[in-house]
Amino acid sequence: MTTKHEQILQHILSLEIGHKISVRQIAKTLNLSEGTAYRAIKDAENQGLVSTIERVGTIRIERKKKENIERLTFAEVINVVDGQVLGGRKGLHKTLSKFVIGAMQLDAMMRYTEAGSLLIVGNRVKAHELALSEGAAVLITGGFDTNDDIKQLADEKELPIMSTSYDTFTVAAMINRAIYDQLIKKEIVFVGDIYTPSNQSYYLYAKDKLKRWYELNDKSTHTRYPVVDEKERVAGMITSKDIIGKDQNILIEKVMTKNPIVVQDKTSLAYVAHMMVWEGIEVVPVVDASQKLKGVVSRQDVLKALQQIQRQPQVGETIDDVVSRNLQAIEGDETIFQAHVTPQMTNQLGTLSNGVFTALMTEASSRVLRHIKKGDLVVENLTVYFIKPVQIDSNLIIKPELLEAGRIYAKIDVEVYNGKKMVGKGLLMAQLIDR
């Protein structure tokens, strides 16, 4: 039997793309409370089934394919540029393939404007009409409106015509930034990318007898299994430690570990890796919003994915990528590093930002551990002293020294020099992940 939450999600999936959704309407249609409807709609938004747009409301959208994540929908463009929709609301779910800045003659502009593109233009009504006729959406800059017949054409073509108070080139920069952010997100690995679905993994029911664990163990050679209730919601975990000395006819629910740590498919790989090291867990159940089992993710899955990431080229560059690229080992010594302070690494005063300073220390420490212990680190605690400000274009020397290193624990002292002067010092404590 489906839960109320699942009923609402199924109802949303049955709606046409572009259909407007409200909490009150969903609650009334399905005879449920508005609180339940609100939570389910928020979950649908997280799953990419709906999008909420200011001054428009929540609309049903087409879920993006992973390979198109770098493309923005027109609904996302509206949110990026803080705009409003003048017409063609039913097309907000569509994605733009490219955008064209309309700062040219009409005939030249139309050579670049094609179906699926977005024309960014000012108060030029003829350009609005020609773009819509070609199958392109329109974003009007400078806060201008357009004619009613243009709005009607947008409705007929189901192509959005939108307006924003920003100027043309500011809008182009904002959209470029949003696309770049999407590229960075594309590189972030989530549990949903690597977990083993429940139809390909093994699990037990709470009402099964313990002998069922032995049957699965013979079949799979695994020793850890999620335990679910009659509705397939995760109720516990059972491992070989839980069954030692127990009667094989006892119920699983009597010996399982209750309230286990679970994750969802949108949980990042980095978080899961940290948690597995921190808690000493080998297998984590993956659940949906109603705690129903979707699959499992193992430590082996996580380690394989982490190794794969290190081999992938970077497309969208984060500040950690900038730090990593600028940090080089000194020739002849793999434990001392140098870094050049670029403009991207500074704050508004032109000095090295505290966040980048910390990232340099962490990255240098991580590389030393890889060199000495052949392992990666998960930072547990970091104490940093910023002794002197570091100017732009400075050349830093970073010296991490391994003070203590156990099987799963390490303590590292880090000193940072600009020339012969010490500009910073840190003490880092971390847990180790064996490679």
From TrEMBL:
Organism source for this protein? Virgibacillus salinus
Q: Where is the CBS domain?
A: 256-314
Q: What is this protein called?
A: Predicted transcriptional regulator containing CBS domains
What UniProt keywords are attached to this protein's entry?
Answer: CBS domain, Repeat
- UniProt-listed InterPro entries: CBS_dom (IPR000644), CBS_dom_sf (IPR046342), CBS_domain-containing (IPR051462), DRTGG (IPR010766), HotDog_dom_sf (IPR029069), Ser_kin/Pase_Hpr-like_N_sf (IPR028979), Thioestr_dom (IPR006683), WH-like_DNA-bd_sf (IPR036388)
